[in-house]
Specification:
- The complex is a heterodimer of chains A (about 350) and B (about 425).
- In chain A, a hairpin with a 4-residue loop joins strand 1 (about 70-75) and strand 2.
- Chain A has helices spanning about 1-10, 25-60, 95-105, 110-140, 145-160, 160-170, 180-185, 195-225, 230-235, 240-270, 275-280, 290-300, 305-335, and strands spanning about 70-75, 80-85.
- The radius of gyration of chain A is 28 Å and the shape is flat.
- Chain A is mainly α.
- Chain A contains 13 helices and two strands.
- In chain A, helix 12 (about 290-300) packs antiparallel against helix 13.
- Chain B has about 425 residues and is an alpha/beta fold.
- Helix content of chain B is about 45%, strand content about 15%.
- Chain B contains 17 helices and 15 strands.
- Chain B has a five-stranded mixed beta sheet.
- Chain B is globular.
- The chains are: A mainly alpha (about 350), B alpha/beta (about 425).
- Chains A and B meet through strand 1 and helix 12 of A and helix 1, helix 3, helix 4, strand 4 and helix 10 of B.
- Strand 1 of chain A pairs parallel with strand 4 of chain B.
């Protein structure tokens, strides 16, 4: 980009009669102010996103950890002497070892976590979208106390996520939790929620659904209100049933909004760290760990393993990139411009 | 340029240190000779103790310290125990924001020392009376032949029991072996309808079962992973049997520790395996029936011996601290770890002193709980003090959940732990 900006400024323009200015040159003459205006943004993005991203990718090909990052380790004495000796196992480039180790399961539990992540993401997004859509339809009609309902339904969003996570975790507590007390009071057995990965994951999914539905509801409600009322009136006159109106007007009208929020929802839930981390804590025995929490644990417990965490990060990013590309392609096939 | 600056700094600090040690030597003979008021510095101390239970006592000690050293300002910062390790490492690696003094858990010291984040204290006044410290807690401060800290408190696991429930069940003596525990639990269940034992589903809390059979996690001398040895499998099987037979409550996988403490405080379970750090908590629990209701005994023995892991905290000095503050930092740590200060903390909080001489002070001598814990601590087993020491517990925690909560076979689960140690923790060691 820097060459783009620099070259035209230095070279003197060729005479107009002999040759037309290059496309680049014309573009610069016409849009130089745009380049100048985006320059700070590009700079900030570069520093904040591209530099760490590139560095992360590079790190994933090394065996850099906190213990081997220094070329020499100095032991300072309080009496004033300092002994430095070269780090016996200083970091080195190890090629794709990290990827091989993770993908073959030698280090960490990548495939198990990947499976849990997919299950977790798909379940959460399906319920987020389904419930969000249902509630949005309900609230899109004139009714008494609509404002109050809206406020109540948006409430989970207003509570900080970690507070909700702790509340849910406590409700599912096996000995003292509200849910087991309820079960007992109606004559059911206590459930050992966190003794089995399926029920443990269920607790986290329930907590996350509760947290995520308001966002879907608000977005879809917004989308619904952009659908012209005339379409509904016309359909009503034509004798369409409410279901037909929903399928043939509401859903198509929501399409662009839906596609965006579904993609966002998928990516957010895929990387939803706090809920798993705080509600199940990976219990039992790490079986409800998703990729991001698993990566955190293998990388940041004990002596930090920067290279391993980078590898995990690159893998997660790649999965999401592949998903997004396929998703967009699928949309384009359906004639969606996005 | 930078090299010269460092050279000058080293020279200067050596001079200061010489002066300091000289003062120290004089001070033991004639304390009036050094003027504490001449010592001026501002030090930051990260205290990782519980801010509600324990923090106030440490603050009182600081006030006391400032009576002698009015010009040493201590910035007391309470840092949650769970965050301190990472927070310190981040700050130390970035060379900004790390405290001058840190209360570090025993397993952190070799790790921090191996990364070059700590001053070694060899030749300083702090180690002048090293022999007064118990050898096992002191051993946690040694790494690669150097000493990086002084023990603040020590602890270990013991069998804590509810005296009233024991009396109701007609048990007159604390159980000495795991078999005794099983018998006692049966009696408690039969006579009081309460549960006998709660074993926290965490790796640290299963160490007594491993040590009880004479096992250990790794053999650091032979560089060998021994976590899945036959002795360890036998030990873990004992724990699994206690849960399976109903002698111990089946722990939940999530928040096992909190559940244990709540049940014990509400007198719903008679025995737990826990350490002195909970004594103050139990003293203040309204449902527990006062500290006199608390019985403390050594952890029950397996077939080989009764052994519990040593825990505790040390005072360490961050290597990025300016050398000219060394004298003040040494004075502060020396004051905080003196026998008198340790006795004060023991009396206030029920934590265990690390100096032998502290146990001769009346406040400590007459404290029944501390007296009960002392044999536990003096027989505590040192953990492998290697930089990776803290990482042993992740896989062990997984194992504890698998065995105690999910009923998985101990051998299979311990093999999994050994495999994790080999691939992720101590890769240079040979498999057992």
């Amino acid at each position: 980009m820097s060459t783009d900006t620099a070259t035209p400024a230095r070279t003197s323009p060729p005479p107009r009669e002999t040759r037309r200015p290059s496309r680049l040159r014309r573009s610069w003459d016409k849009h130089w102010y745009a380049w100048v205006m985006v320059a700070p943004v590009v700079l900030v993005l570069g520093v904040l996103i591209f530099y760490p991203l590139g560095r992360g990718i590079l790190l994933s090909f090394t065996n850099l950890t906190e213990a081997n990052q220094l070329a020499e380790i100095c032991s300072k004495s309080i009496t004033g002497t300092e002994v430095c000796k070269p780090n016996p196992n200083a970091w080195e480039v190890v090629g794709v070892d990290n990827y091989v180790n993770i993908l073959t399961g030698k280090v960490g539990e990548f495939w198990q976590q990947f499976g849990v992540t997919l299950l977790w993401t798909v379940t959460c997004v399906v319920f987020h979208y389904g419930l969000g859509l249902g509630l949005a339809v309900l609230l899109n009609r004139p009714m008494r106390g609509r404002g109050i309902y809206r406020v109540l339904l948006i409430l989970p969003w207003a509570v900080p996520a970690f507070v909700s996570a702790f509340a849910w975790r406590f409700m599912f507590n096996e000995q003292f939790g509200l849910i087991n007390s309820l079960f007992e009071s109606v004559g059911l057995d206590r459930v050992e929620w966190f003794a089995d990965w399926k029920t443990a994951l269920l607790t986290a999914i329930i907590a996350n659904i509760w947290l995520g539905v308001p966002f879907m509801m608000v977005t879809l409600l917004g989308g619904m209100q952009t659908i012209p009322g005339e379409q509904y009136e016309a359909a009503e006159i034509d004798g369409a049933t409410p279901w037909q109106r929903f399928v043939n007007i509401t859903l198509p009208g929501l399409r662009s909004v839906s596609m965006t929020v579904l993609l966002l929802g998928f990516i957010w839930t895929f990387n939803m760290f706090p809920i798993i981390f705080l509600v199940t804590g990976g219990e039992p025995a790490g079986q409800t760990e998703i990729l991001v929490t698993g990566a955190f644990r293998s990388a940041f417990e004990g002596i930090r393993n920067y290279s391993l965490s980078s590898t995990y990060g690159v893998l997660i990013l790649s999965i999401l990139l592949v998903f997004s590309v396929f998703y967009r392609r699928a949309l384009r096939k359906q004639g969606e411009v996005w | 340029m930078r090299r010269t600056a460092r050279g000058i700094a080293v020279l200067a600090s050596a001079a200061i240190a010489l002066a300091v040690t000289a003062c120290g030597n004089d001070a033991t003979e004639a304390p009036t000779k050094t003027d504490p008021a001449a010592l001026a510095a501002e030090l930051t101390w990260w205290d990782t103790s519980d801010p509600a239970n324990e923090g106030p006592a440490f603050k009182e000690l600081i006030t006391e310290f400032n009576k002698t050293y009015p010009n040493v300002k201590i910035n007391y910062q309470s840092v949650p125990f769970g965050e301190a390790q990472n927070k310190f490492k981040t700050a130390a690696a970035a060379k900004s924001g790390a405290p001058d003094i840190l209360r570090a858990e025993v397993a952190w010291v070799p790790e921090f020392a191996s990364l070059g984040y700590l001053y070694n204290l060899d030749g300083s006044e702090l180690l002048a009376d090293e022999s007064d410290y118990f050898a096992t807690p002191m051993s946690a401060n040694k790494f690669d032949g150097k000493t990086y800290g002084v023990p603040q408190v020590t602890d270990s696991l013991a069998l804590m029991y509810n005296k009233k429930i024991f009396a109701d069940a007609g048990i007159t003596e604390a159980p000495k072996t795991w078999a005794d525990v099983k018998t006692a639990a049966a009696a408690i269940k039969a006579k009081t309808k309460k549960d006998g034992l709660f074993i926290n589903a965490g790796g640290y809390f299963l160490l007594p079962f491993i040590y009880g059979e004479g096992g250990d996690l790794v053999d650091t001398a032979a560089k060998k992973i021994t976590v899945n040895s036959a002795a360890n499998v036998a030990g873990i099987a004992v724990a699994a049997d206690l849960v399976k037979s109903g002698a111990a409550v089946k722990p939940p996988a999530n928040d096992s520790y909190g559940t244990m403490m709540t049940l014990f405080k509400e007198q719903k379970v008679a025995m737990i395996i826990n350490g002195p750090w909970e004594v103050n908590n139990l003293r203040n629990a309204p449902t527990f029936g006062g500290i006199d209701n608390l019985g403390v005994a050594a952890v029950p023995a397996g077939s080989a011996k009764a052994g519990a892991p040593v825990g505790g905290h040390n005072y360490v000095l961050y290597s990025g601290m300016a050398q000219d503050k060394a004298a003040a930092a040494i004075a502060f740590v020396k004051f905080m770890s003196s026998a008198t200060s340790q006795a004060f903390l023991a009396d206030k909080l029920g934590v265990l002193p690390t100096r032998k001489s502290a146990y001769d002070i009346d406040k400590v001598k007459n404290n029944a709980i501390i007296a009960a814990f002392q044999p536990v601590v003096s027989s505590a087993v040192a953990r492998p003090w290697i930089p990776e020491g803290g990482q042993f517990f992740g896989p062990l925690d997984t194992m504890a959940t698998e065995v105690l909560v999910q009923g998985k076979d101990p051998k299979t689960s311990l093999d999994g732990v050994a495999n994790k140690y080999k691939t992720e923790v101590v890769t240079a060691y040979s498999a057992g």
